[in-house]
C-alpha cells in the first residue's frame, strides 16, 4: 500500500503566501500602494476619476470615461482573484484538517484492532 505523506509545513506556507497576496489585493483595491501602506494617497480602483478640462474638451471627456471603465474592470478582476485566493486558502486548510482526521481514524482503528485481537501465545 502506498504511503501518502502530507507536508503540513509546506501547505501552511503556501496558504500563508496566498493570504498575503490576497491582503495586498485588498490594499490595492482600496487605493493604497502596498509598498507604502503607511502613506495612503490613492483612490479605490473602481472610483478613479480625472478632471477632463471641461465638458467641451472631448479628448478629456473620453479619457475620463476610459479611466472609469478600466478602473472598474481592473477592480472586478482583482475582486475575482481575491475570491479565488480565499477559496484556495480554504481548500488548503481542508486538506490539512482532513489529513488530521485520517490520522486520528487510523490511530483509533489501530487501537481497536489491538483490543479485539486474539491473544498471542509465545
Structure summarized in a few sentences:
The protein has 122 residues and is an all-alpha fold.
Describe the structure.
By secondary structure, this protein is mostly helical. The protein has a domain at 56-116. Helices cover 66% and strands 0% of the residues. The protein contains 2 helices and no strands. The chain is rod-shaped.
What is the topology?
Elements: H1 8-29, H2 58-116
How would you spell out the order of helices and strands?
HH
Mean pLDDT score, rounded? Answer: 82
Main sheet characteristics: none
Which class do the helix and strand fractions yield? Answer: mainly alpha
Cα-based radius of gyration, to the nearest Å: 27 Å
How many DSSP H or I helices? 2
Keyphrases for this structure?
single chain; 122 residues; mainly alpha
Amino acid at each position: 500500500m502506498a504511503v501518502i505523506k502530507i507536508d503540513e509545513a509546506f501547505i501552511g506556507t503556501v496558504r500563508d503566501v496566498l493570504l498575503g497576496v490576497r491582503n495586498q489585493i485588498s490594499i490595492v483595491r482600496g487605493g493604497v500602494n502596498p509598498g507604502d501602506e503607511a502613506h495612503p494617497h490613492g483612490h479605490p480602483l473602481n472610483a478613479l476619476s480625472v478632471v477632463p478640462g471641461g465638458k467641451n474638451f472631448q479628448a478629456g471627456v473620453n479619457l475620463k470615461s476610459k479611466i472609469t471603465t478600466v478602473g472598474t474592470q481592473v477592480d472586478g478582476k482583482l475582486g475575482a482573484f481575491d475570491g479565488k485566493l480565499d477559496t484556495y486558502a480554504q481548500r488548503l486548510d481542508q486538506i490539512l484538517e482532513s489529513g488530521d482526521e485520517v490520522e486520528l481514524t487510523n490511530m483509533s482503528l489501530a487501537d481497536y484492532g489491538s483490543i479485539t485481537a486474539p491473544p498471542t501465545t509465545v
